[in-house]
Amino acid sequence: MANSLKGLGVSAGAVVGNVVKVNPPVPVPVAEPTPTDVAAAHTSAAEALESVAVELERRAGLAHGDGAAVLTATAMMARDPSLLTAVGSNLDNGAGPANAVDAAIREFVAMFTAAGGYLAERATDLLDVRDRAVARILGLPDPGIPVLDRPAIIVARDLAPSETAILDPSLVLALVTEGGGPTSHTAILAAQLGIPAVVHAVGVLEIAAGTEIAVDGTSGQIVIEPDPETRIRFGEKARRRAELLSQGSGPGRLADGSAVALYANIGAVADAEQAGSADVEGVGLFRTEFMFLDRSTPPSLDEQIQSYTTVLTAFGSRPVTIRTLDAGADKPLQFASQEREENPALGVRGLRLSQRREDLLSTQLEAIAAATEKTGAHTRVMAPMVATAPEAEWFASRARAVGLSTVGVMIEVPSAALRSRHVLASVDFASIGTNDLTQYVMAADRLSGELAPLLDAWQPALLELVGATRRGAADKPVGVCGEAAGDPLLALVLVGLGVTSLSMAVPKVPAVRLALSLHDRATCEAMAAAALDAPDAAQARAAALALADEELQLLL
Amino acid sequence: MSERKVTIASSVGLHARPAALFVQAATATGLPVTVGRVGEDPVDARSILGVMALGAKHGEVVVLSAEGDGADEALDSLVALLERDLDAE
Fold it and tell me: Does domain A254-555 have CATH number 2.60.120.20?
């Protein structure tokens, strides 16, 4: 199998299919002549922009929800009168039509990028309009995903939201990108849609369109022109995987029958409505930031009561864990001005901000309590970024004062893990945020792609902290709500360390449920001991895998 | 020249979907409508790029202006639109 590539598997599943390549953006011609007929150039540019608007509207018609809204807005940008005016004045100044469009759009992109936040994100949509319009002016095919008429594997440098929004899961066998990382847009979307995906597959763009390739979305392996044996192996893996995943349902149970609760992570009211109908036992992490970011005044008590009521109602009698506002210097609030910090991840964030803006926390707790009373729901409330026992006590006393009976803290600072006996003394449960806990224990910035190997959740140091949290927690529940909980093999190690619930993105639940059902507690404990005994992350994983059931291989 | 002042009701401000709805409505009036902060240069209300770049936040007051036949009625309907929480609908 010399003819293979290795990328980063980000969405599980094995598949064999033919490559469809995303057309690369057309470069803006450097030496475009000044049009001899300026009026004709005006018409050509205007027609190109209008046809882009029509195409984007057509795509909006094929997309759903947020995807459709983004495309409709992008179509309006292509048809924008201010843009057309700017293009016109560039043409009058002697620019060729492709350059006139490019320069006009780059001006808006610069303005949007300078504004930051939401507007900066929209700059990608504007550049998408530019790429399409330039291709049309030059009479070249549209960049991006061609219209698929049969199932295929999409290969691209990276994918824009406007491209991923119209992906038809029934025709896209897999996504492979040369760029991107585990938290890229492509990766997140593929996981949501349940499409196998590999990112960071260096060299994949050299594969010719139409070539047959085999893609393994877990190992990240890509086999070019697979031999019959490989084809059968991939086909069999895909078939068995589908079969296994369709079998399980209901609460999480180990092979010996002991319970490990399977919860959903949600980040918006709309997510809650969707997750509420899924086969999960409740919510392990409801992020409330979305209500506070990108606005000039904090949400009112009534507005918050309404949002929490919707979320709690979606889950009926199942427990819902609400995390209070986790904002700070990296996710700044317009209404809570803070000084610029050199190290925002180590600065005034999470509960530290709540202690400085107690009014925000009081309103939030009051709203959660009111929504709980209104719905009779089983609400659990927890604080982010707790480092010490007095902080936990400070939060617990305020939550209990408004009538919230189940109070917990996130364990994401190493000090809280090491001192869990004291930190948890005043609360009822703990939830380990493995993403931040890894960042802090490894002293490696979560946002740094270069440090990705240090941020591997299999780092034995992270596992040690999970164990330490458990030992100090006595018989209080300890859950995990980071990425680690959604990895079927790592989930077993966490259970072996004594974790009582696992919370993850909903599409990850079936594989974890199955992994639990294949192993008993003694095996999980043996896996945990083996992983802790390993000198590094890769060997920790290998040691756990060596003890796993063969069936689990199909999920990895 | 007719003018109206209105407070942005959308919880996300004049962004995203509310901005698109507002621009569509302004375009549909067939009049050259502008929108801007009090005392600042306004932008073309028919331009999604201009309206997004304006970045009017929830609770901010903006001035709408229009000229021509039916300008008052057109502005009244746009005021009514901005007074609703478009994002919640």
Answer: no
Q: Indicate the domain borders of chain A.
A: 4-22+151-157+171-243, 38-137, 254-555
Residue A194 region, left (φ>0) first, then alpha (ψ -120 to 50), else beta? Answer: left
> Cβ–Cβ of A112/B12 closer than 8 Å?
no
Non-local CB neighbours of A269 within 8 Å, separated by 6+ positions: A307, A310, A311
Number of C-beta neighbours around residue A532 at 10 A = 18
Above 60 in pLDDT, residue B89? no
Contact list, A80 vs chain B (CB under 8 Å): 47-50
> Which residues in chain A are closer than 8 Å to B23, comparing Cβ atoms?
76
pTM for the predicted model, two decimal places: 0.65
Q: What pLDDT digit, counting tens, does each position of A458-510 carry?
A: 999 999 999 999 999 999 999 999 778 988 999 999 999 999 999 998 888 99
User: Residue A181's pLDDT is what?
Assistant: 66
Q: Tell me how many helices (H) and strands (E) chain B has.
A: 3, 4
Q: Are B51 and B61 in contact (CB under 8 A)?
A: no
Beta-carbon contacts of residue A200 (< 8 Å; ≥ 6 apart): A7, A8, A177, A178, A179, A180, A181
Under DSSP, the state recorded for A34 is P
Chain B residues with CB inside 8 Å of A118's CB?
15-16
Residues lower than pLDDT 50 in chain A:
1-2
Q: Which CATH superfamily is domain A4-22+151-157+171-243 in?
A: Phosphohistidine domain (3.50.30.10)
CATH number at residue B59: 3.30.1340.10
- Please give, one letter per residue, the 3-state secondary structure of A305-346: HHHHHHHHHHCCCCCEEEECCCCCCCCCCCCCCCCCCCCHHH
Question: Interface pTM (ipTM) of the complex?
Answer: 0.90
For residue A324, the model assigns a pLDDT of: 97
List residues of chain B with CB under 8 Å from any CB of chain A. Answer: 11-13, 15-17, 19-20, 23-24, 43-44, 46-50, 52-53, 55, 57-60
Range of the domain at B52: 2-88
